[in-house]
Amino acid sequence: MFLQGYSTINWDKNITFITYNHLNLPRTITFSGTNKKIEYWYIADGVKVLQVNTDGTTVHTIDYIEEFVFENSAISYILHEEGRASIESGVFQYEFFIKDHLGNPPRRKSRPSFGRGSCLPVAHINFLKSRQV
Fold this sequence. Notes:
By secondary structure, the chain is mainly beta. It has one domain. Helix content is 8%, strand content 51%. It has one helix and twelve strands. The strands form two sheets. Strands 3-4-5-6-7-8-9-10-11-12 form a ten-stranded antiparallel beta sheet, with no helix packed on it. The longest helix is centred in the last third of the chain and has 10 residues, at 122-131.
């Protein structure tokens, strides 16, 4: 079923109803089952600032503050121009988006971690410099 060209029901994904805001962005997605839904909050220009996932009595929130993403009030990852830096066990893990010739990001490449701060050892930096042409 469609409303102004947008889907309002998707039985394949157990979505019983989708409501949209005045910017035609999804506001609430309701799933079949007991109180299972996703709510989205936007600022005036359509940038998503909050996502609330409810499954019964369990509530999971995701806050988007510019490039910082918080899950349940704890920082989850930081977006940057070339990928993201996620925090795992108190250490940043860097993931880079490898783009194809059209600029589409088809793959994600994780950089190996070398300990706290994730800096490359001097031996690796010297090897990389000697390989440049």
